[in-house]
Amino acid sequence: MNKKHLESIANKMLEKPKGILAMDESNPTIAKRLASIGVENSESNRRKYRELIVTTPNLSNFISGTILFDETFRQEMSSGVLFIEHLKNIGILPGIKVDKGAKDLSNHENEKITEGLDGLRERLEEYSKLGAKFCKWRAVITIGNKIPSKACIFSNCNALARYASLCQENDLVPIVEPEVLIDGDYTIEKSYEVTKETLECLFHQINIFNIHLPGTVLKPSMVISGNKNNSRADYNQVAEMTIKCLSECLPHELAGIAFLSGGQTDDESTNHLNLMNKKFMELPWRVTFSYARAIQQSALKAWGGIDNNIVKSQEVLINRASLCSKASIGQL
User: Fold this and answer.
1) CA dist list (Å): 32 to 112, 125, 166, 311
2) Cβ-based neighbours of 102, under 8 Å, separated by 6 or more
3) What angle do CA 103, 109, 112 make, to 5 degrees?
């Protein structure tokens, strides 16, 4: 493990006023995105859409790194240049999603465990040689009737720590993503309780596995009421309770935080982040974004699969990226 290298990459990922763009949708997920605009889920259309994103003018002003799916990581753009080479050329760090997805947790109804540890060391060695600078692994925690269970939280946090250890062994910065799903009618207080329990378990496991914290980025969900709750918490309460939870759970040595948007609307994701940075200016770590839909969704609709709409779509995308960037320094 090259600790100085890990810290250098993590610092670039968290550089102000930038954030991380998540464009690592699996093929089934990108199929849903394309279907929403009536576009066939073919390799050429997936490439065209992702090329639209990375060729957006001035993207590197607001984006420090991009999480890719394996297909895109190995893929050439229409120009014949590899996506990862294009990203490097415009000053954006290429990263890679390495988990194999959330599968049913045995003997635990309605709960998931993320798989992908088998063979991960060899895959990481390859990705590192191909030019990856960081990785991502997502765990899923569901709030519901008598869940999450301790087994679900522990199993996922243990896997996140094992993944992070293997990443750092290969000089790749791990993004650890314990997502508490927004689906449900639960209160913000319940979200706080589950998020805190999850983060405490995660950092206990991270400590056990000797993870180098200054070379580690956390990608958490915000403390927020469920999307089916009729009396959802307002922007200020989400910002305050999220920062309170993180301050109680996270070690100061951690490189930083890059939130997922997790089903929030565009306005919710930017306003919550903006308030956190505006109201809490003396935090021990950088608090920024690692958004997917909150940056891409409106641009996807503007494109609609029509070549003549590419410039218009890129204008929408850079506007969203700019707003997220401003929110990451509390200047929205």
Assistant:
1) 21, 31, 32, 23
2) 112, 113, 114, 115, 138, 139, 140
3) 25
Mapped onto helix, strand or coil, the DSSP state of residue 264 is coil
**Residues that are catalytic:** 177, 219
Confidence (pTM): 0.96
Q: Which two tokens stand for residue 37?
A: 């605009």
Q: How far apart are CA 133 and CA 91, in angstroms?
A: 12
Q: ω into residue 174 within 30 of 0, thus cis?
A: no
Q: Counting Cβ atoms within 10 Å, is residue 122 exposed (0-12), middle (13-18) or buried (19+)?
A: exposed
Strands 19-23, 286-291: pairing is parallel
pLDDT tens figures, 9-47: 999 999 999 999 999 998 899 999 999 999 999 999 999
CATH number attached to the domain at 3-327: 3.20.20.70
